[in-house]
Amino acid sequence: MIIMKKSIIFLQIALFAAFATFAQVDRSKRPEAGAARAPEIGKYEMFELSNGLKVFVVENHKLPRVSMSLIVDRDPMLEGTKAGYVQMAGDLLGRGTTTRSKDKLDEEVDFMGANLSTSSTSINASGLSKYTEKLVEIMADVVINPAMTQVEFDKAKEQFLSGIEGEKDDAGSIMNNVFGALIYGKNHPYGEIITKETVESITLEDCKNYYNTYFKPNISYVAIVGDVKLKTVKKLFKKYMSAWKPAEVKGEVYPLPTSIQKTAVAFVDRPSSVQSVIRIGNPIVLKPGDADIDALRVMNIILGGGSMGHLYNNLREDKAYTYGAYSTFGTDELVSVFYAYAQVRNAVTDSAVQEFLFELDRMRTGEASADEIAQAKASIMGSFGRSLEQPSTIAGFALNTALYNLPADYYQNYLKRVEAVTAADIQRVSQKYISGDKLLITIVGKGQDVAPSLGRFGDIAYYDIYANPTEAPSFLTMPEGVTANDVINGYINAIGGKEAVAKITAYSMKMEATMAGLPAPLIMTISKRAPDYY
Question: CB neighbours of 71 closer than 8 A, spacing ≥ 6?
Answer without folding.
Answer: 121, 122, 220, 221, 222, 223, 399, 403
